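Lab notes, practical 5.
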Amino acid sequence: MSRTPKAPKIPTSNTHEPITTTKALAAIVERYQSAPFLAVDTEFMREKTYYSQLCLIQISDGKKAVCIDPLAQGLELDALWSLMRDEAILKVFHAAHQDLEIFLNLMGDLPRPVYDTQIAAMVMGQGDQVGYDKLVKAVLDHDIDKTSRFTDWSKRPLSDRQIAYALDDVIFLAQLYPIIINQLDKQGRVAWLADEFDRLASPDTYRTIPEDAWKRIKIRHMKPPALLRLIHLAAWREREAQTRDLPRNRILRDETLIDLAGSNPENRGAFSKIRNFPGGTDGKLIDPVLKVLATAATASPDDAPTQDKSKRQKRPPAAILELLRVLLKHVTDYHDIAPRLIASAEDLEALALDDNAPIRALDGWRRDIFGTPALKLKNGDIAIAIENKKIRLIDL
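Output from the prediction step:
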């Protein structure tokens, strides 16, 4: 896309104090209720907790930007939650996933409707998962001061520099959104983002099911009994982490779970051989772990997932897969769109194996620009050629 002339910066004050009282929050919420959209961002800490600790909320309607201090004593956030639930006001985020996860945990539901400028940037030729500072530079030609990026947002008082940094995140976001939406409207690509934003609006996107927690652990092939033990252990650790609000690895590390699943200790003494088990044979987690292992032992080996085995048995032809990759690169370069928005590596493998694979690349606009040419390429109806050092498609 062509570079847009630098937009004038909304003036802010380095002495702008965060909102710390329920009365002040109610006043700004009343002002924002007439806004068509709000730029929203958060600052949080997560190094020592399972759930993100919300430390600051920034909001701008394009005219006035404020910081809200959720750590302020006595501040009630009910008015803010009502604003976030107001479906007449669009909430604009950049890289919204973690912000929305925080709102879901604290509000009990999600802000609606939402718009993510990072996702929008993927159909504007800005690449995959472009950072906020790079997008601001590309669209507004402004350099953001990121020296406060790694600050401890839980410490009070916040400095003027920290507040200015936090406010910039929504000041420029409020300027970005109208430009982005106008550009996508000109390109006829507004609807291309619908399913991406639907995913953001689904609570299931942010909830971790303990029984699925083992999928986060990087493992090689495990025999069914050991895999069942790992599934039970990972689910137990996930519940412990949620209940105690601690990072997973503060309960037990991944490698420790793998060692437990493989060695299957049957008594306290056997824990002396378990890698990094806290407390060794005197560890407080021995009894609950033994209980989990005993429960896993009652499961049938037939209950163990078999997807890894099926994947190993059905590998797509390497030549077809490579051609699909080349085609995807050609299509995404031509349309100036991030490849991830069309198809993942797993999607390409599925497509190489099955013309009717249940993947997004075979639906809607993705099928129009990539899915249909991909099927034609597979079936020998078109060919890939190089002309003047550029790829082009040839009808056969």
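Observations recorded by the TA: The domain at 22-205 is CATH 3.30.420.10 (Nucleotidyltransferase; domain 5). Residues 1-15, 307-312 have pLDDT under 50 and may be disordered.
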